[in-house]
Design goal:
Elements lengths: L1 H4 L3 H26 L3 E3 L16 H4 L13 E3 L6 E9 L8 H10 L3 H5 L1 E7 L4 H14 L1 H6 L2 E5 L17 H23 L3 E8 L2 E3 L3 H10 L8 E3 L8 E4 L3 H10 L6 H13 L6 H11 E3 L5 E3 L18
Parallel strand pairs: 3-4, 3-6, 4-5, 8-10
Antiparallel strand pairs: 1-2, 2-5, 6-9, 7-11, 8-9
Helix pairs in contact: 8-10
């Protein structure tokens, strides 16, 4: 600027332009710190680096091989990385009933500020209904503005092109056929969320959008993980219900996702989690008793449960569920 100051009138104009540009950039940065960063994949700049963690999906889904890069359709947050824990919450519309605000309130409010700083909570909207996405975003902007601003909370949406054509799946007018399709989509929803979270943190905790976290749950988790003497654990269960409260090492997530995608049409994801243990950890010819003993050593269960399931209206339309555990 001092150099330009001594130039001709033409350079004086360049100085004015430069100052205007600096002011504009300062304003933009200030706005970014106050507002949310919202991106759509088609607006990413050419020089922006995008993680290739989603490339594994192209092996299983040929229709994705025509896609340049796979990434969430929408990202709201600061895309925080380099933390110890990523907490994933997949959500879909349940009609007139929603438990997400209650879930987020318990998950976020029961962290200390230092724990919040070393973690990121990712809400993944796995629903094509744009009105539902907007309602989730509006609710989070209003109720969790500080967490969005700090980067400890993000919202993403899964692009519609990610899902394969479900027509090759056994179809039925009966509820059993619809339930099968619902389970299939749920497996895919979780896999996408896991792949997005993997580069962000050392550990990944899977939650759902209709749970309540116990007081000091995060402190109990971090203390428990840091005090485990064996590093050879498979995953840790902080809840016995379904796929809730399962903690994985992020470096293992790709292996889990690969297995889930091999059998995503065959079983719900919580049953596949048991199957992967049998495949990877039980030796041929080994007695069930011996395998069960190893199971106890590397599939670690924390007691009592740190998460309570509260949702009655299932994400499967018309279905109610009452599974609960005692804290």
């Amino acid at each position: 600027i001092l150099h330009l100051k001594n130039k001709t009138e033409r350079n004086r104009q360049e100085l004015i332009d430069a100052l205007s540009k600096v002011k504009y950039e300062m304003t933009q940065r200030k706005n970014m710190s106050l507002n949310l960063v919202e991106k759509k994949i088609n607006t990413l700049g050419k020089n922006e680096t995008v993680s290739n963690t989603f490339e594994v999906l192209k092996f299983f889904f040929p229709h994705l091989r025509k896609v340049g890069r796979i990434y969430p359709d929408v990202i709201i947050g600061k895309e925080k990385t380099g933390v110890s824990f990523a907490l994933g919450i997949s959500t879909v519309s349940r009609g007139n009933q929603s438990y997400l605000k209650q879930t987020l309130n318990s998950v976020v409010s029961r962290m200390t500020l230092s724990e919040e700083k070393d973690s990121v909570v990712i809400v993944s909207v796995a629903d094509r209904n744009e009105d539902y996405l907007k309602s989730v975003v509006d609710m989070i902007k209003k109720r969790f503005k500080r967490q969005l601003k700090s980067g400890s909370l993000e919202v993403i949406s899964i692009p519609a092109f990610f899902y394969p054509n479900m027509l090759h799946v056994k179809k039925s007018a009966e509820d059993s056929g619809k339930l099968a399709s619902w389970h299939i989509k749920q497996v895919l929803d979780f896999c996408f969320l896991m792949l997005y979270a993997q580069p962000k943190a050392m550990y990944y905790l899977q939650l759902e959008d209709d749970i309540i976290a116990k007081k000091m749950y995060f402190t109990k988790i971090t203390d428990f993980v840091h005090n485990i003497t064996s590093k050879n654990w498979f995953y840790i269960e902080f809840s016995i219900l379904g796929f809730i409260g399962k903690l994985f090492k992020s470096e293992d997530l790709t292996d889990f996702v690969r297995f889930f995608l091999m059998f995503y049409k065959d079983k719900p994801i919580d049953l596949l989690l048991g199957d992967i243990f049998q495949v990877k950890m039980c030796n041929p010819g080994e007695t069930p008793e011996k395998c069960a003993e190893r199971n106890k050593q590397i599939r670690i269960r924390y007691k009592p449960s740190l998460f309570q399931h509260v949702g009655i209206q299932s994400s499967f339309p018309g279905r109610e569920q009452y599974s609960k555990v005692r804290f």
